Amino acid sequence: MRKHGIRLGAAALGLVLALILAVGPAQAADKTLMMATTTSTDNTGLLDYLAPKFQEDTGIELKWSSMGTGKALQFGRDCNADILLVHAPEAEKEYVEEGSGVDRREVMYNDFVIIGPPSDPAGVKGMDVKEALSTIAEKSVVFVSRGDESGTNKKEQSLWTAAGMELPDKQDWYVQTGQGMLKTILVASDRDGYTMTDRGTFIKYEAENNGEPPLVIIVEGDETLFNQYSVITVNPEKCPSVKTDLARTFSDWITSEKTQKVIAEFLLLDKQLFTPNAK
Amino acid sequence: MSFILDGFTQALHLLATGDPETYSAIRATLTVSSMSMTGTLVLGIPLGFLLGYARFPGRRAAKTAVDTMLSLPTVVIGLLVYAMVTRKGPLGDLELLFTLPGVALGQVILGLPIVIAFTATAVESMDPRLRPTLLTLGANPRQVLMATLWEARYSCLVAAVTAYGRIVSEIGISMMIGGNIKWHTRTITTAIALETGKGRFAMAIALGLVLMAIALLVNLAVVGLRRKAVH
């Protein structure tokens, strides 16, 4: 019995050690660029697609942490990232003006869409954004919001204001998840409600559901739904630790003609997720 | 319901084919938990021994503090460590944010009270005749100390396993300090949260299976060692 016990213990410890050895030491690269970015570039798989190409072209490894644009900007202010890839033009301009960021460059765009159950419980299909939002509010149909000060959340809030309404907050029909876009779509789908998302993330969601998603596009095509993405370098004067050259390289690379073409070629279900528009 | 079964099948496939994303998360978890366990044990056992063995003023307060810290929520630890290691924080220059050592720092804070409290209790509840017996046998203070620690070794082991269980399963610290960075700081728990959020259950289930397997292996190891103790 005693021998058996020792053997069992030794075998189990050995297995744990073997597992550690088998998976090897963490890989390290000399040059790494730290990016804070919005959830859409991560959730859609765009960065998974771009990062290896960037490393191949420049030898720099791209590391990124995805969060709402509001938090990403705060990460820049706190000097925790070298570069930002975000989508809230107003907040970005403020960020540059206050001296926290430099060299803001537009990279690509897509558009926002309002999605909901195919049965369209509020009957807003075909309406413009203002009309659709006020009808949803009037009929108190569930609307799920990111509620996390992300670019999408900021955009959504500006649309409520544009529709001439107070920002919904405590209403029963207004659900704020405080989480990423795909999670928020799952909540909306669970509650049979509407939500607003960028087209890239929606196509990703469609693809995850084999082209038959529980929520479909209800409102789209409005001019106000334009969604611009930009890169901003964290200001090295405020944050001396920032790897300015690497950030500069990335900024040049992603706005280069070659990479812009690569972005246009990023497809899911044969649909283009982002349209490059660097100047 | 079928998606659970599908997820399970796909999970086995991911594990069997050596899917790099899955194994990267496994590696990150094993690496960071090994680091934090080393820190926890190296600091925790001597401190726990001291708390259980030595008599000093403020000992009762120290015990209360340790017991309170047993229920420190992981998000609070995450918040505290974040405030320390953010670039503008007091430890900002160490560049610990978004790194596994940074996560390990938080996890040591999580594991430490467990190891200290368990070890202290074990040392305290040992047979009171041990010390006088050792002394009559002519042991010097160092030998008394070593013998006491040796007698408490299995309780220390239980402490280590309990601490490991909490460290390997926590998500608050890993998410806030590690940042869930793919190929680097994405651990099993943060990956499960992410994949579930994206509705990709297969990968989440695969990682869940691995986490349970690690728990099983650790417990088998302890069962083995305890058998050795009994016989």
Summarize the structure in words.
The complex is a heterodimer of chains A (279) and B (231). Chain A is of the alpha/beta class and 279 residues long. Chain A has two domains: 32-110 and 227-276, 3-Layer(aba) Sandwich (D-Maltodextrin-Binding Protein, domain 2); 111-225, Periplasmic binding protein-like II (D-Maltodextrin-Binding Protein, domain 2), CATH 3.40.190. Chain A contains eleven helices and twelve strands. Chain A has helices at 2-23, 39-43, 46-58, 69-77, 89-97, 129-138, 151-162, 181-190, 199-208, 244-254, 257-264, and strands spanning 32-37, 61-66, 83-86, 101-116, 143-145, 174-176, 194-198, 216-219, 226-234, 267-268, 271-272, 275-276. In chain A, strands 1, 2, 3, 4, 5, 6, 7, 8, 9 and 12 form a ten-stranded mixed β-sheet that branches. A two-stranded antiparallel sheet of chain A has the order 10-11. The longest helix of chain A has 22 residues, at 2-23. Residues 23-29 of chain A have low confidence and may be disordered. Chain B is mostly helical and 231 residues long. In chain B, helix 2 crosses helix 8 (153-169), helix 4 crosses helix 5 and helix 4 runs parallel beside helix 9. Helices cover 77% and strands 0% of the residues of chain B. The model of chain B has no long low-confidence stretch (mean pLDDT 90). Chain B has one domain (1-230): MetI-like fold, CATH 1.10.3720. Chain B is globular. Chain B contains eleven helices and no strands. The A-B interface holds A 1-2, 4-13, 15-16, 19-20, 23-27, 34, 43, 48, 63-66, 78-80, 179-180, 182-183, 186, 205, 208-209, 239, 241 and B 23, 26-28, 30-31, 34, 86-88, 92, 95, 97-98, 100, 179-184, 197-200, 214, 217-218, 220-228, 230-231.
